[in-house]
Description:
Chain B: Residues 124-388 form the FAD/NAD(P)-binding domain. Chain B: Residues 615-886 form the GCVT N-terminal domain. Chain B: InterPro entries: 2Fe-2S-bd_N, FAD/NAD-bd_sf, FAD/NAD-binding_dom, GcvT/YgfZ/DmdA, GcvT/YgfZ_C, GcvT_C, GCVT_N, SoxA_A3. Chain B: Residues 542-579 are annotated as: Disordered. Chain B: Belongs to the GcvT family. The complex is a heterodimer of chains A (406) and B (1007). Chain A is 29% helix and 26% strand. Chain A is an alpha/beta fold and 406 residues long. In chain A, the strands form three sheets. In chain A, strands 1, 2, 8, 9, 10, 11, 17 and 18 form an eight-stranded mixed β-sheet that branches. Chain A starts with 21 loop residues before the first strand and ends in a 5-residue tail after the last helix. Chain A is globular, with a radius of gyration of 21 Å. Chain A is built from ten helices and 18 strands. Chain A has two domains: 22-66 and 175-243 and 335-402, FAD/NAD(P)-binding domain (3-Layer(bba) Sandwich); 105-169 and 245-331, D-Amino Acid Oxidase, subunit A, domain 2 (D-Amino Acid Oxidase, Chain A, domain 2, 2-Layer Sandwich). Chain B has 1007 residues and is α+β, with helices and mostly antiparallel strands. In chain B, a hairpin with a 6-residue loop joins strand 21 (333-339) and strand 22. The radius of gyration of chain B is 38 Å and the shape is elongated. The chains are: A alpha/beta (406), B alpha+beta (1007). Chains A and B meet through helix 2, helix 3, strand 12, helix 7 and strand 16 of A and strand 6, helix 11, strand 31, helix 15 and strand 32 of B.
Amino acid sequence: MNQRELPEHPDFLWANPEPKGSYDVVIVGAGGHGLATAYYLAKHHGITNVAVLERGWIAGGNMARNTTIIRSNYLWDESAAIYEHSLKLWEGLEDELGYDVFFSQRGVLNLAHTLQDVRDSVRRVEANRLNVVDAEWVDPQQVKQLCPIINIADDIRYPVMGGTYQPRAGIAKHDWVAWGYARRASELGVDIIQNCEVTGFVIDSGRVTGVETSRGRINAGKVALCAAGHTSVLAELAGFRVPIQSHPLQALVSELHEIIHPTVVMSNHVHVYVSQAHKGELVMGAGIDSYNGYGQRGSFHIIEHQMSAAVELFPAFSRAHLLRTWGGIVDVTMDASPVMGRSPVDGMYVNCGWGTGGFKAVPGAGFAYAHTIATDEPHELNRGFGLDRFVSGALIDEHGAAAVAH
Amino acid sequence: MGATQPQRLEVGGAIDRSRLVELVVDGTTVMGFAGDTVASALVANGALRVGNSIYRGRPRGILSAGVEEPNAFVLVKGEHDESMLPATTLELVSGLDLRLLDGIGVLDQKPDPAEYDKMHVHTDVAVVGAGPAGLAAAREAAATGARVVLFEQDFALGGSLLAQPDDLVEGLPAAQWVERVRAELEAAPEVTVLTRTTAFGSYDSNHVVAVEKRAEHLHGTAGDGVSRQRIWHVTAGQLVLATGAFERPIVFADNDVPGIMLASAVVGYIGRYAALPGRDAVVFTTNDSGYAAAHALVRAGATVQVVDARDGGPGERVAAAATAAGLTVRTGSAVVGVDGDVAVEAAWIARIDADGALVGDAERVPCDLVAVSGGWTPNVSLHSQRQGALHWDDDLAGFVPTAPVRDQHLAGAVRGTYWTEGCLVEGAAVGQTAAAAVGFTREDGCAATDLDVAAVDEERAARAGRTRQLWLVESREGGYATHFVDLQRDNTAADVLRATGAGMRSVEHVKRYTSISTGVDQGRIGAVNAIGLLTRLLTGDDARAIPPGQPGQDERVGAPGSAPDGIPAGGAPRPTPGAIGNTTFRAPFTPVAFVALAGRSRGELFDAARTTPVHPWHVDHGARFEDVGQWKRPWYYPRPGEDMDAAVARECRAAREGVAFMDATTLGKIEIRGGDAGEFLNRVYTNAFKKLAVGKARYGVMCKPDGMVFDDGVVLRLAEDRYFATTTTGGAARVLEWLEEWSQTEWPELDVVCTSVTEQWATVAVVGPRSRDVIARLAPDLDVSKEAFGFMEFRETVLASGIPARICRITFSGELAFEINVPTWFGLTVWEDVAAAGADFDITPYGTETMHVLRAEKAYPIVGQDTDGTVTPQDLGMDWIVSTTKDFIGKRSYSRASHQGAGRKQLVSVLPVDRSLRLPEGAQLVESGALGDYTGEGLPARPIPMLGHVTSSYHSQALGRSFGLALVKDGRNRIGQTLIASFEGRFAEVEVADAVLYDTEGARRDG
C-alpha cells in the first residue's frame, strides 16, 4: 500500500440526536466496546431502541489512545476463544462495516529473550495451536526474515532467542473502527448521544429502570456499562464494586517515515511493542505507570525507558523523533482478564477490565456483550469472565501465565 | 543556486559575514554565513521552494522561521542520517549535506555511533524562553542570588528581539541589550544559561525535561566525551514560562504556493539574517503586526502593498501610519488567491464582506512574496501540558492562559503581551516573584525597575491591535480544496467542511477525521484556524453534541439544559472558538530523537548486567552464561569437545557421585530485623517462622492474596530479632518490594525492618557425597559430622584461610550439600579455595542447567518455571508447608470453590515412553484419544482440550532416561496414566508418575 495515498472517509458517519425519554437499552460509554455492542444488539438481536451515552466525544478514551494491536494468541482456553472469535470478526469487519479501517494482517511477533521467555513462548504456541489459533515458534533467523530491522546480534544485552508469530494478527486504524460501528449503529436506529454524562442510576427493588444524566433522566429497560476504568465510579453509583484498578498507560508516535517495519513486534522482556502505521509513523506502547489514577498522562521516565528498549532492538529508530506522547487509562483486574456479564443489579450489565487488551477485543466483546444483554445470559464466549470468578477463585490468569503484554 | 546569495542584503543581520559556510542541498552547493539557519541561507539564495507536499505533491515553500515550520523538512546525511528536521531551526554549520523531504522521513538502519547523556538538576527558578520577557525574568531572579536555569531553544538569546536588532531596549539597541543581559547572567555564579536547549516536557512538581544540542555546531571540534545531545531533567522550585507566541497563516485559495510566508518570518529573515524573501511583496494581515513586515520590506528595498482585512476601526491607526510612510494600504480587503505553481507570481486582491466573501472583482497584483498574518497564538504548550487553564480572548483573538499553574509564572507573548516594554515589565515582575517564592530577594531591598504590571494588563488588548477573526477567505472560483489549513498534512477547509458534514462536532473528531494538527508542528500552523472554521460551520443545535473538557473550552459549554454562550440555541451559526476548545497539548513540545531519550541506557548499559565476584573465574573456565533477572549466571561449563548435553551430564554425575560446586551468589538475600520479625514472617510465608530456633534454617513459600505461589527460599534465624531470607534470583527486588508494601501499608504497627543484602554476600554451594570432605578441609574448626551439624542448620565459623563464613547445610539437589556464605569481597578467594580443597575429589563446577536437572529429579519446583501465578503450594504437592493454624497472605483463598474438589492442575512428573525423547518445555498434554483425526499438520478443526503442560524437561543421568515435570489437571490421580504430549506438530506418549523420581526416601541428604 502506498503510504502517500489515504482512503476517503464516508460522507456521513453518525447523527447527533437529542436523547429520548426512554430506551430499551442504554449503553453507558461510547467507546469501541459500547458502539460495537449497540451495533450487534441492533443487527443480531433486533434491538434498535438503544442509546449509547457518552460523557465526552465518542471513542475518545482508550479507543483513541491504544496502539491498535490485534491478535488472539492468548494462553488460556477462555481467552483464546473470545479473542479468536474477535479476530474472525475483524477478518470480515471492513466488508461488514463498509469502511476501510486499514485492517492489516501483518502478523505479530512476540520476542523471547531469556530461557524462561522461550519456555513460556513454546507453551503458548502449543496451546494456541490446539485451540485452533495460528501460532508458530520462530528462531532468531526467522525473526530477522519477518522483520529485517530487528537487531538479532547475540552480543546485545538481551539477545533475541526467538519468538512466537501469529500471521493473522495485525493492526487497524482505531478511530475509524469506532466510527464504522457508530455509522452502522446510527443507520440501524441507535441514538449516539455525546456530551451526556451519567450521574446516577434509577434502581427500583434491585432492578435498574433508568439513568440520571447531565441531560436529564432517561428511562431504560436495561443498562449496560461499557466505561472501562470509570466502571468503578459508575458501579459505585449503582451500589456495587468491581475489582479493577486503573493505571495510566502511555503510548507514543514518531513523525512519518518511509515504511521499514513490516510487522508488529512485542517484547515483554525489554518492554517494547511497536508497529509502523500505514502513514509511516512508528506507534509504540510504553510500560504501565505503577500508580493508580484517572489522569490520562504518565511519568516521563517510563517513556525514556521505552526509548532505550526501542533503540536497543531497532537501531534504525535511533533518530526517529518522539512526536507525541499520551496516556490512556487501563482498567486492570487481578487476573488480567476482562469482566463481562450480569451485575448484582437486575437489568444492569458490566463489561470492563480489558486492561491493555480492549482494542483487539472490540468486535468479539461487542458481539458477546450484546448477546448477554439481549438474553440476560452470558454467551459461551464470556461465560468464564463473570464477576463471580473473583468469589469462586476460578481466575483466568493471563498476566501470570502468558507473560505477554498487549 | 551557486555562491552568490542574491537575496542577501548588503548590511544588517546577526550573521557573521566573515565566515562563509557551504552546504549541499540535494547535491547543489549553497553558500551562507555563520549565524544562518539552513532556511535563512536558502532565503538568501532565493530558494524559497522546498519539498513537495506529502499527499498532493504540491510545491511548497519555507513558511516560517521557527519550530512551527510545516514544509521545509530535511534529511541531514552523516554518521547516522537524521530525517524530518525543520530547516528553519537547523543551525548552518560547515559540511551539512541535506536532502529536501516531501513530508516523510527516511530512517537510517545503521546503529547511531554518537553518545547521548542526561543531567539531573534542581534549581530555584527555571525560565523557559530567552526573549525579552524571559531574559528580564532570569536577570531579576539571578539578581537575588537564586539558582536560575534559563532554557533557550535557539542558538542565540533574544527571541523576538533577534528580528529587530536595532530597536531600542532600555535605551540600547536590542542586540546590545541582549549581550548586556547575557553578560550579567554569565557573571552570576548560580545561573545556567542553556542555549540550543528546548524545554519540551512539563511534568508534576515542576519537573521540566529539555534536550540540548551540544556538538554539531562545534564543527566536529566538540572533542571526545562530549555527548551529541543531552537530556536535562530540571526540577524547579518555580517555573517561568516566557515561551512567546506563534503567528497564524490565513486560509485562502492556494495559500500554500512557495512565496507565501508568515509576516513575522519575513521580519525575521530580514532583520536577523539580512535575507530578503521577496522584492515585490503583498502583506496580507488581519491585525497590526503585519505592518512590521511591510515596513521591514520597504526598508530592505522591496515594493509593498498592504492588504488589511479590517475595514477602518481597529486598523486605522497603523494603516494611516503606513500610508504616511508611503505604503499602499487596502483595507477591508483580502488576498483571495494567488497565481503561480512553484512560486508566487501574483496575488488576487478583492474587497471582502463580513463573512469573508468577495465583494466586486478581484485585482491581480504581480508579486513574488505574500506575507501573511492571521493573528497570534500564545505558545501555551508547557502550560497546557500541566493542565493549565486556557480561555479564548476575543480581543487578542487567541487562546491565552487563564492563570498560571501552581508555582509557575507567565510572562510576555505567552499571555498575549505583544510589545517589548510590556514583556520586560512582566518578565522582571515574575522573575522577582518567582525568586521570592523560593526565599530569595534582592539584597538591596528594592525592585530594579518600576514594574507597573497593572498598566501592562490594561494596555494589552490595545497594544495587540484588534485582530479580525477572518477564518476563511472565499475564492474567486468557489470551493475550498486548496484553502490549506494544515499544510504539513495537506488538509484544507474542504476537509473540515467534510468532517462537520459527516457529523463531527468535537474538535478532537475533526482532528482525527482530517488529521489536522497531527504533523510535526502539532497544530501550531493549523489548529486555531481549524477551530475558527468550526465556528463558521457549526450551529447552536450542533453545539449540544459538543462535549466539554477541551483545553481552552468555555466551561459552560456542555452544561445541562442550555446552549453555551455565543451559541444561541437553534440560532445563528456563530459559536466562539471558546465554545469549541483546543485539542490536547502533549509532550514533547518539539520532536526529540529516540536515542537522545535513551541516553546512556544503550548497549551494555541498557540494563547493566550484574555479575558475582566469581564471574572472572567462570569466564576463564569457559562457562556459558544464562540471563537470570539482571544476573549473568553460569549455565554450564563445556570442556573442549563437549556439547551442552555432555557437559551437563558430566556435571550431574559429579554432583550425584562425587562433589561439585556452584556459584549461588545471585540468590536474593534480605535481612529482616526487629522485635516483630518472626510475626512478620509468619504472615508472609505459608509456614511458621516465629518459633524457628536460632541457628536453624527453614524452607518457606510465600503466596499472593489469591493463594498462588509468589516466591520461595530458605530462611535462617540469626538471632531472636534477626532473620536472613533468600529469594529466587529473579525475584529479589519484587520480594523486597512486597515485604515493604506489607510492612509499611498494612502492618505499620509491626517492628520490622527489611534490608537487601544480596550484594553483601557471596555464596558457594558445595554439593555431593564428598562435599563433607571438602568442607572439612576448608573449615577445620567446624565439626561437619552428621551428628554435630544437622540438616537445615547453619554455623558461623572461620575458614582455614582466616575468612569468616556462615555455612549452611541445605540442599537443592537432594544430595549432601553445604552453602558457604562469605562477605562478597572474599567470594572469589573462597571459590578458588573450594576448588583447591576439592581438587583431590575432582570437584566440578556446575551451572544452572545442572542445578535444574538435579532439583527436578527431586521435584523441587522453580518458581516462575514450574509455577506461573496460578499454582498453589498444594498444587505443588506441598500441603505440608501450608499452616492450618496461623493466618498468612493467601490463606483465605484456599477456602474458595476453585480450591475445593477436583480439577486443579498438580505437579507430577512425566516419563516419555521413548526414554530418549526430551520433550520441549512448554509441550501441551492431552488425553489419549483427544486428538481425533488431527495429525499435527496445520491446525485442528476444533479446539482440543488440554490437561496441562510440561514445565521442565531434561535427560537424567541418575535415571538413565528423559523425564519432565508437568502441571496436569488432577495430576496426582492420573499417576500411571498415559497421556499425549503435543509439540511442534508431533505427538508422543508419556506416562504420568509421581513428581519425585530420585531418592524418594530422601536418604542422600545426610551423605
